[in-house]
Design brief:
With 186 residues, the protein is an alpha/beta fold. It is built from five helices and twelve strands. The strands form three sheets. It has a seven-stranded mixed sheet with strand order 3-2-1-6-9-11-12. The longest helix is centred in the first third of the chain and has 15 residues, at 21-35. It is globular and about 40 Å long.
């Protein structure tokens, strides 16, 4: 019997939640260093990102790096069943959103064009299939975008296979603490 997305998500989240805070910090720093080797990231002027929470790969230093290099940082805000990415110029532009995740305040301007978007992932396959949190926000947002999508993940979050639907958007690059994986997404 094929595993459901919910079962696989639960297994990977439980595994990830057992990672110690120290190992999360060490791995996140290495993932940030590896992200710096990705040409599309280095060349990007407008970078979409997410504000990490819980046991996710830490993004605070990545966001700080984007801002300190004079690039445009856009973070998602939940509006209904959609994500709207808005420019964040400083961390004071953030507030706790509907799901307890820091997101741009209402006065932040929406960003329409991106050079690259960094997305969270619960589990990934090397060919770019991404298992998120099950709400479909990123898949809906990315459905019509033709830009590089980078997923940050711990190497233990890479699976041989995961269940997916035709609406699930594949990522083009996966960055782990062990290296960079380019999927087959054109």
């Amino acid at each position: 019997m094929a595993e459901t997305k919910e079962n696989v998500r639960k297994q990977f989240l439980e595994k990830r939640d057992w990672i110690s805070a120290d190992l999360i910090e060490i791995s996140s720093k290495q993932i940030r260093r590896n992200l710096g080797k990705v040409e599309q990231y280095r060349k990007a002027h407008v970078v979409g990102c997410y504000h990490s929470t819980g046991s996710e790969v830490r993004t605070h230093e990545i966001m700080q790096e984007v801002l300190s290099h004079g690039k445009v940082l856009a973070l998602p805000r939940v509006e209904g069943d959609s994500l709207v990415f808005c420019e964040v110029k400083k961390f004071e532009d953030l507030e706790k959103g509907e799901f307890g995740i820091m997101e741009p305040k209402q006065y932040c301007q929406a960003v329409q064009k991106f050079d690259l978007i960094i997305v969270p992932a619960v589990a990934m396959t090397k060919d770019g299939h991404r298992l998120g949190y099950g709400m479909g926000f990123y898949d809906r947002f990315l459905a019509d975008k033709k830009i590089p999508v980078v997923a940050l993940a711990y190497s233990k979050s890479i699976a041989k296979s995961i269940p997916y639907d035709q609406n699930d958007v594949k990522v083009s690059i996966i960055v782990t603490e062990d290296g960079i994986i380019h999927s087959d997404v054109a």
